Amino acid sequence: MDEREAYEILGLDPGATPLQVKHAYRRAALAWHPDRSPTQAGRLQYVKRFLRVRDAYEFLRANDFPDLPAKPEEDPVTKLPPLYQAPDWLVAHWEREARSGGWDWLAPDEQDFSVLRRLAILVCLAFLLLLAAQFALKKVGLHRHVKIQGVDISIR
């Protein structure tokens, strides 16, 4: 990305003041924020555009808001690595959402299964702990009689 492209992305003329750049960035960031996407299918486009706006602003900030000459000569394009790229799994998820019409969140993925697996293990451990406590009370010979909401519960 070069200076001219960064100014174009923000909708400014080269040589704009830092305050103008800041206001243009905020306006563009609000307009292209992914949460403002009217559809799930368009969310990926909003994310890409939002990241380009942010990268353009960061590029201009890193270069102290350079002023371009009126008629630029052939400058070598300085390419900077993107400051932020969404993780591959997130981009893949957004692409699946876009292809499926936004209902992909209903399909469980590996992360959902790992949460369910942990919950099932926790429930099983709680049940085994309850059984062990009941067995220990029987072995020791302690008999408990508890009344909870009118229901008599006795451990023997």
Q: If you had to describe this structure to a student in words, what would you say it looks like?
A:
The protein is mainly alpha-helical and 156 residues long. The protein has 2 domains: 3-106, Helix Hairpins, CATH 1.10.287; 110-155, no CATH class. It contains 5 helices and 2 strands; from the N terminus they run H-H-H-H-H-E-E. The chain has helices at residues 3-10, 18-31, 43-62, 88-100, 110-140; strands at 144-148, 151-155. Strand 1 and strand 2 form a beta hairpin.
Note the topology.
Layout lengths: L2 H8 L7 H14 L11 H20 L25 H13 L9 H31 L3 E5 L2 E5 L1
Antiparallel strand pairs: 1-2
Helix pairs in contact: 1-3, 2-3
Considering DSSP H and I runs of 4 or more, what fraction of the residues is helical?
Answer: 55-70%
Number of strands: 2
Looking at CATH, the homologous superfamily of the largest domain is: DnaJ domain
Stretches where pLDDT is under 50 for at least 5 consecutive residues are 68-72, 74-80
The SS-based structural class is mainly alpha
The name of the CATH topology of the largest domain is: Helix Hairpins
Mean pLDDT: 76
Element order, helices and strands?
Answer: HHHHHEE
Question: What's the level 1 CATH class of the largest domain?
Answer: Mainly Alpha
Q: What is the architecture of the largest domain at the second tier of CATH?
A: Orthogonal Bundle
Question: What is the CA-CA span between the terminal residues?
Answer: 77 Å
